[in-house]
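Collaborator request, handled under Task 6.
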Amino acid sequence: NLACRPMGVEVFVSMITTGQPPVPDYFVEDAALNRQRHDLFHEHGLVPLDADAALAARGQDGVVVLDTRDVETFVQGHLPGSLNVPLKGRFAETAGMFLDYHGASVILVSDPGTEVEAERRLARVGFDRVTGFVPESTLRRLETDGRLERDERIDPAEVEAQRADESVVFLDVRGP
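Structure tokens returned to the collaborator:
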């Protein structure tokens, strides 16, 4: 094993840290939480929210609506002001970068039956304040009422065409 060869501390640290992704912001919060005594996480029956309750709750007292559906589904219709972090992939790590660990709570929008998995994965990164979820029936009702927002995805050819327009701002939100 390369890491077990005799070497100085500086060489060892350089070897194991080279090429590593940046440390997510929530690691600091997790480290502090891990030094504190707290109750064990218990999955509980998440409260389903009706359309009006879901719309009224978002943005109040730091409440975040976290939509865990895939990007294609999200752009077709989502609660205004919600954040999209798909459950597939690096969900907890990515969501942990956006959540306020000091008092905010989360309402989940998820594919049917996946809300408990999302709650559990958030708890694993130290975020255990999921207060409810928006059932699929509520989303359908909001869509029927015209209260969902829609986004557009554009293909690379359209992006290239817009690059010449100086009024268009491109913001790359990918990690380094």
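The cover message to the collaborator said: "Helices lie at 9-17, 26-34, 51-57, 71-76, 91-98, 115-123, 136-144, 156-162. Residues 79 and 148 are 5 Å apart (CA to CA). Please let us know whether this matches your experimental observations."
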